[in-house]
Design a protein that fits this description.
The protein is of the alpha+beta class. It has one domain. The chain has one helix and three strands.
Length: about 45
C-alpha cells in the first residue's frame, strides 16, 4: 500500500474544508496540529 499526502492550502480559510467535504467519501482527514495546514490522506493500493 502507498499512502499519498495531499497538503491543502486554503486561500480564504474555506477552501480546505470545502475540498474535505466534497471528497470525504474518498479521503480520510487526519487531525494534525490546529495551527498547521490541514492534511488529507488517501490510501491507494498499487
Amino acid at each position: 500500500n502507498t499512502v499519498l499526502y495531499m497538503y491543502c492550502k486554503a486561500v480564504h480559510g474555506e477552501l480546505a474544508s470545502e475540498i474535505a467535504e466534497e471528497f470525504a467519501w474518498q479521503y480520510v482527514s487526519l487531525p494534525f496540529d490546529d495551527g498547521k495546514v490541514p492534511h488529507v490522506v488517501s490510501v491507494v493500493s498499487v
